[in-house]
Amino acid sequence: MPTLIWSDALALQQPQMDVTHQEFVDLLAAAEAALDDAPATLLQRFQELLDHTVEHFAQEDRWMAATGFSTENCHTFQHAAVLQVMRNVVALAQVEGDFGPLKQAVAELAQWFPTHASTMDAGLAFHMEQVGFDPATGLAREPVAEGTMTGCGSTTCND
């Protein structure tokens, strides 16, 4: 059984974000299920997770830019840091055949994601709602000044 399973507790009531998050959780579960498979299978599952996560984070970064988050915010920095770790563990597995860090990353992502979603992503979803941002059209009901949100987008983060 996977460490992290999609549930209503992870839902943020922002449909496009919730679908993307559910896909992330499912791909993470597939990578976790492959931990004891052949290295090539594990690498393939983790690469699928990484490919999804690149677009997942880019999508949220685009939403932050469209809704007035500063490009210099800790939410975006966290995305970049997580992607760098994911890319590094893939490189170690591919080049050196060292799958230990990749396996550890699977476990760490399952621990990290619920907190990220319930703080930073929840803050972004709330902000999107406040400005009336429609992710499908990229339009906001309220005028958005560029770079007005400089914190992490979390209700627990101070500017």
Report on the architecture of this protein:
- The chain has 159 residues and is an all-alpha fold.
- The chain has a domain at 26-130.
- Helices cover 64% and strands 0% of the residues.
- It contains four helices and no strands.
- The protein has helices at 15-33, 39-66, 74-96, 100-130.
- Helix 1 (15-33) packs antiparallel against helix 4 (100-130), helix 2 runs parallel beside helix 4 (100-130) and helix 3 (74-96) packs antiparallel against helix 4.
- The radius of gyration is 16 Å and the shape is elongated.
- The chain starts with 14 loop residues before the first helix and ends in a 29-residue tail after the last helix.
- The relative contact order is 0.17.
- The mean pLDDT is 90.
**What is the count of β-strands?**
0
Q: How many distinct helices?
A: 4
Low-confidence stretches: none
Roughly what fraction of the amino acids lie in strands? under 5%
Helix content: 55-70%
Cα distance, first to last residue? 39 Å
Q: For the residues shown, what is the average pLDDT?
A: 90
- N to C succession of SSEs: HHHH
Tell the overall outline: elongated
The biggest sheet amounts to: none
Structural class: mainly alpha
Radius of gyration: 16 Å
Keywords: Iron, Metal-binding
Protein name: Hemerythrin domain-containing protein
Domain Hemerythrin-like: 17-123
Family: Belongs to the hemerythrin family.
